[in-house]
Amino acid sequence: MNIPSTIKTHNWDQATTDLNNTGYAILPEVLTAAECDELVQQYTNDTLFRKTVVMERHQYGKGEYKYYAYPLLPVIQQLRENVYPKLAPVANGWMDALNKPTRFPDTLAQLLEHCHANGQLKPTALILQYAKGGFNALHQDLYGDVFFPMQMVIFLDEVGKDYEGGEFVLIEQKPRAQSKAIVLKPAKGDMLIFTTNFRAAKGNNGYHRVNMKHGVSEITEGSRHTLGIIFHDAK
After folding, report:
1. Residue 149 Cα to chain centre, angstroms
2. What is the Cα–Cα distance from 110 to 202, expressed in whole angstroms?
């Protein structure tokens, strides 16, 4: 699949509306089934990765993930480069609404230049693997002082066929209110864009900050793989 063309064909006006209203947006069929399968098959190719994390050792959950090394695989690099410019205006809109001075540049290259100037040099794209009983505890992927407030995950297996359970969970923490859980089950090849840390939400007295965390519920059968793409680099 031609990634730049595929990204252009999606309804970014609707995605922007969804992100502003809910903190997440789902874009269907961003990768083909064959592209998803190839990424899963490459999981055992250690030359592609800079680091492996066994989640139980750090109380992150139960499963394993691997961070890709630079240079990234072309499909990952193209996704990162072509989606970022669609999201930067949304992120800047949130900063404006919350009266924050932070401004995000127009291109991924400019964002990474800022990361590198602040000592954040390591790529953060990763692939996650869970077996039966696996899960991911609620967390945020910040990696340093410089972070972009949105990230994305692409689902590489088919729920109901390759695995059961394993729902993607977002927790929305509004000020002076109980937390809200959002449970999502995108299809194989779908891209989920969601809030890394916080978003701007409009209330009765103007805009306020809504903090969000994400995780994965327990896999009850089969195995589950996802591709995670974070736009900022890590220390």
Report:
1. 10
2. 30
Q: How far is residue 186 from each of residues 27, 130, 133, 167, 189, measured CA to CA in Å?
A: 9, 16, 20, 9, 8
Do the domain assignments include residue 234?
A: no
**pLDDT tens for each residue of 109-128:** 999 999 999 999 999 999 99
pTM of the model: 0.95
Nearest to 230 by CA among 173, 170, 176, 152: 152
Those residues whose C-beta lies under 8 Å from the C-beta of residue 204, and which sit 6 or more positions away, are none
Question: Which residue has 């269907």 as its token pair?
Answer: 28
Inside any domain, residue 36: yes
Cis bond before residue 123 (omega within 30° of 0) = no
Residue 149 forms part of a structural domain: yes
Residue 172 exposure: Cα atoms within 13 Å on the Cβ side: 19
pLDDT digits (tens, 9 = 90+) for 166-189: 999 999 987 777 899 999 999 999
Tell me the residue range of the domain where 103 lies. 3-229
Q: Which residues contact 206 (CB under 8 A, 6 or more apart)?
A: none
Asked, for residue 221, whether it belongs to a domain, the answer is: yes
Specify the number of domains making up the chain. 1
Q: For residue 166, what is the domain's CATH number?
A: 2.60.120.620
Residue 55 near residue 65, CB atoms below 8 Å = yes
